[in-house]
# Entry
Amino acid sequence: MQCEICGSDIKGNPIRVTVEGTVLDVCGKCARYGKPSDKWTPVSRKVSPIEKLLVTRKPRRDAFDKLEGEIVPDYAQIIKKARESKGLTIEELASKMMEKSALLRKIEREELVPEDTVRRKLETELNIKLTEKVSSQDQRGGGFIRGTTLGDVAIIRKKMK
# Structure
């Protein structure tokens, strides 16, 4: 029989060792490269339990918390006047803002209300203000505070007999 490491002929009984997880029959000189494996031991197939990571999530913030105000009703005219006063075309303004010109066209035609990111870019590029603060007094109706009721929203039809 030959040594499975060096290939020399083994005189006597080979020594069974484990080298990096592999069981080999080797000579006496090569036996020092592995651990002796006299007994056959089955490999455990059990998976050690993995520690569960506790994920703490931050509470979600309400999207309305960070609103600065409401967009003014005549935003399209304000944007168009400011752009024309600077002598910019829609394409030039779009390239400065890194936005698509089709988006700006739709905003100027009032087909779209600009999102917060686009609104901020427009405000900084054209030096305009597109939002206004809304006070709680503006939201009151008739001097007393009341919430919206179903009657404010629904159209109620009475049954005819």
The mean pLDDT is 79. The first helix runs from residue 75 to 85. Residues 70-132 form a domain with the 434 Repressor (Amino-terminal Domain) fold (CATH 1.10.260.40).
